[in-house]
Specification:
alpha/beta, Aldehyde Dehydrogenase, Chain A, domain 1, Aldehyde Dehydrogenase, Chain A, domain 2, 2 domains, six-stranded mixed beta sheet, 16 helices, 22 strands, globular, binds adenosine-5'-diphosphate, Aldehyde_DH_dom, oxidoreductase
Length: 501
């Protein structure tokens, strides 16, 4: 068990927590500094001030974390599967008790509003551990009717040390969907957090280290090339699960290919939302607000960033969508009144502004800027971007082809069903898609033909444990969040044959 003596008490002051966690990784059940002693600044994007310093993980720290994971793996994989599940479910219970502090900490480091986003994410974090914790008994094998004189069976075995590399947009949830199934399946884990959001995930792991044996779960903070790359390349890392950009996904995949180890990649999207002429307009508009994740400043892989609206509804849809987004409040992420917080970092801010400027220069396109920047002087340096709805943009424009990861969507007019299906599929990505219609035949046809890992009709729900998540085309490789994903991506099937002749 972990070395933590007294149970951790929830700490609702995120500044105090960031200070407590500053400069630290979690290796072998203990909070430790980087081997080099180096740290890097973590900035609160709503105020532009340093909120803490994270441990600057490098190859030496990766070595230490992987060594701890290798050592812990011996006894962890020997535990009965349901006992591992029980401990993982216990993590879910502990995380539930810490939901509010984790929500506040992630809001401070990412700029995501507490009420609309961060609290929801903290809830899913706990839920993922509860869900996967119940699945230990499902790590079943099979018997194979190969030969009556040969008892042939399969067993599921863990892969070993899993390297989990996560992004900053929903860091706790995406971490949970990777590590909960990996742990239940009997693997041990080294997480590499995103440089923009290292604290909430570290805190979550510290909380879990109270029940997990030391070394079963380790987490490092650091930058991609210095910390992520050596983790992927480490000879004792047997599997990498990654969520991030297509570009980095390719780098990770190349290294994994050299080592001949499996990878799971979740790489983003440019998700189409199709609003047919017979759709319920009010429901579709509400669905666009949720789907575009305006409350997360559009920083979502599944953001409905291409909204195809039938000519007959187009103008009414744009007016209603703008009115709804106008009514959303931009402000301090920690303020309960805030709907929309900030972009995560200055680099992302500049990128998003670049796309908006390009959109405004595009001939025939119009930018409808929504809501209003906060007026509070304390937020003057905050990375706030007003949501923008572009109209008159075509599906072949850069804004409709590239993942912006900001509060920017394109509403594209269409008239013919066949044409809109073709346009929706004319994308490098294939993560999620929705269709809004009252016609059952159209709905069913679209669900068959839209090229995406998740297709929804008349709704735009977010990812949840037990819903298979992952894309086709450049959106990634492999699925997450389900029992099948746990079996397929975190175990291998061993065949055992007993000669009875
Ligand atoms: P984004 O640009 O959206 O932040 P990235 O793909 O750069 O997406 O980052 C996702 C995660 O991948 C982060 O944790 C980041 O540090 C990590 N990362 C970046 N470069 C590499 C790399 N070369 N090898 C491994 N991990 C990396």
């Amino acid at each position: 068990m972990s070395t933590t003596a007294a149970p951790l008490a929830p700490q609702l002051d995120p500044y105090a927590l960031a200070a407590e966690l500053s400069g630290k990784h979690l290796i072998g059940g203990r909070l430790v500094a980087s081997a080099s002693g180096k740290t890097f600044d973590v900035v609160n994007p709503a105020k532009g001030e340093v909120m803490g310093r994270a441990g600057y993980g490098e190859a030496a720290d990766v070595d230490a974390a992987v060594a701890a994971a290798v050592e812990a793996g011996v006894t962890w994989k020997a535990l009965p599967a349901r006992e591992r599940g029980r401990l993982v479910a216990e993590c879910g219970r502990l995380l539930t008790a810490h939901t509010e502090e984790l929500a506040r900490l992630v809001a401070l480091e990412t700029g995501k509003a507490l009420r609309t986003e961060s609290r929801v994410e903290a809830g899913v974090l706990a839920d993922a551990f509860t869900f996967f914790g119940g699945l230990g008994g499902e790590l079943k094998g099979e018997t194979v009717p190969f030969n009556p004189k040969m008892l042939t069976l399969t067993v599921r075995e863990p892969l070993g040390v899993v390297g989990a590399i996560i992004p900053w947009n929903v860091p706790m949830m995406l971490m949970a969907l990777k590590i909960a199934p990996a742990l239940v399946a009997g693997n041990t884990v080294v997480v590499k957090s995103a440089e923009e959001a290292p604290f909430a995930v570290l805190r979550a792991c510290q909380i879990m280290a109270q029940v997990l044996p030391a070394g079963v779960l380790n987490i490092l903070s650091g930058f991609g090339p210095e910390c992520g790359a050596p983790l992927v390349a480490h000879p004792r890392v047997a599997k990498v699960t990654f969520t991030g950009s297509v570009e980095t996904g390719r780098i990770v995949s190349r290294t994994a290919a050299d080592k001949l180890i499996p990878v799971t990649l979740e790489l983003g999207g440019k998700s189409p939302m199709i609003v047919m002429g017979d759709a319920d307009l009010a429901a579709a508009v509400a669905g666009a607000v949720t789907g575009m994740r305006f409350t997360r400043q559009g920083q979502s892989c599944t953001a409905a960033s291409r909204i195809f609206v039938h000519d007959s509804l187009h103008d009414a849809f744009v007016t209603a969508l703008k009115a709804k987004v106008d009514a959303m409040v931009m402000g301090d992420p920690l303020d309960e009144r805030t709907d929309i917080g900030t972009i995560v970092s200055p680099q992302q801010f500049d990128r998003v502004q670049g796309y908006i400027a390009e959109g405004k220069r595009t001939p025939g396109a119009a930018a409808h800027e929504c809501s209003a920047l906060p007026t509070d002087a304390a937020l003057a340096k905050g990375l706030y971007v007003r949501p923008v709805i572009f109209t008159g943009m075509t599906n072949d424009s850069r804004l409709a082809r590239e993942e912006i990861f900001g509060p920017v969507t394109c509403v594209i007019r269409f008239t013919e069903y066949e044409d809109v299906i073709a346009q929706a599929n004319d994308s490098d990505f294939g993560l999620a898609a929705t269709i809004w219609t009252r016609d059952l035949k159209t709905a069913l046809d679209a669900t068959q033909r839209l090229q995406a890992g998740l297709v929804q009709v008349n709704q735009n729900l977010v990812v949840q444990p037990n819903l298979s998540y992952g894309g086709v085309k450049s959106s990634g490789l492999g699925k997450e969040a389900t029992l099948e994903a746990m079996l397929e991506h975190f175990t291998h099937k061993k065949t055992i044959m007993l000669n009875m002749a």
